[in-house]
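User: Can you help me understand a structure? I only have the sequence.
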Amino acid sequence: MNTPAQQENKTPAAPAATNPGRARSLIAIAAACVVGGVAYGAWWMSTGRYFQETDDAYVAGNVVQITAQVAGTVVGIQADDTQQVKAGQPLVVLDGNDARVSLDQAEAQLAQAVREVRALYATGSALEAAQRQKETDLARARDDLARREKLANTGALAAEELAHARDAVRAADAALQTAREQLGANQAQTRGTRIETHPQVLRAAARVEESYLALSRNSVPAPVDGQVARRSVQIGQRIAPGTPLMAVVPLDQVWVDANFKESQLHGVRLGQPVSLHADLYGKSVEYHGRIAGLAAGTGAAFALLPAQNASGNWIKVVQRVPVRITLDPKELAEHPLRVGLSMQVEVDTHAEGQGPLGAAPAAPVASTSVYADPARAARARIQAIISANSEGRALALPQPEAPTSAPPAAERPSADLYTPSDAPQRVRT
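Assistant: Let's start by predicting it. Here is the structure, written out as tokens:
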């Protein structure tokens, strides 16, 4: 055992020699960190601070509701969920027998109205001729009276015969007044019009167009190109106008709603470039888009139950505002997206934009012409009926297109001249 004196006489061991390689490594690491930090700071000041990114972004698009314009029973369903359809393609077919009968009645009334108006014009010509005849009769009666008055002055004519001549003049004058009134009444119905512009014909033509449109609306078309979703209609279902049947989503027109924090929107402008990645494809697929606009309020402001910040304890919560981003149609066609998919968004705020976010100009959103075709066909059919019954000649009428259904809808017989479809002979004279 060592004594205290012996312990005091012990000298401390010399420190181990420093490893020069380790020191150099630490210095190199420290220098690399400093250089990296300086480089990152320089990059952040020159470029990085201008990028705003968020993963609170989702694909959005138009969900076009398909509804019926007329009431009816569903006899055919032409498209189902996940299927692609084209604008104008029939989606749902309704029973059109009642509408077809109504169209036949309206066409018969139009043909009758045209012929009645033709009769009015023909009667007008006859009344003009009758008026000229009555004027001639009155002139002849007056001449006869004048001759008889001269003879009566000489005593060669009996007073009774003179009285008969005067009565003939009064009768001829009354007949002329009647003819003039009849001609005036006829002209009141025909003056300033033609057969095709006569009120009776126009009223009957409007009824034909209404019935034609009702028949054509038994086929419910797709207003836009897209993919069918949320089909709820079933065969045999009795539907009313406005009943939702299915939806069509035009996937070539989708956009992205990126919900940025309010503190990220300072440098965001219209038209600035955006880089996007979809979780569906990962980082291997990059989309390029543009800022299209800023929502009118935060998500909380338009919530079903908005926040009541003036009551109770208040905690500040950073709000998010939806920013709409349009996508490159070519990239969208190569890598299609679906509504609701998650996206990662990065906006380059250093790029010059087209103006503040609140200055997005109004522009047409969408339009369709599929509902205009039946109206044009109806007017062509009306003109054909008027021409056929105005000139008294046979004329083939354009027929309403019978939509394809399962089972096939009853086809309308071909027409050489206007007559109701259930008539035994397709000729009306």
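Now, to help you interpret it: The helical segments are 4-9, 20-46, 97-154, 159-190, 199-216, 329-334, 372-391. The first strand starts at residue 51 and ends at 60. Let me know which part you'd like to focus on.
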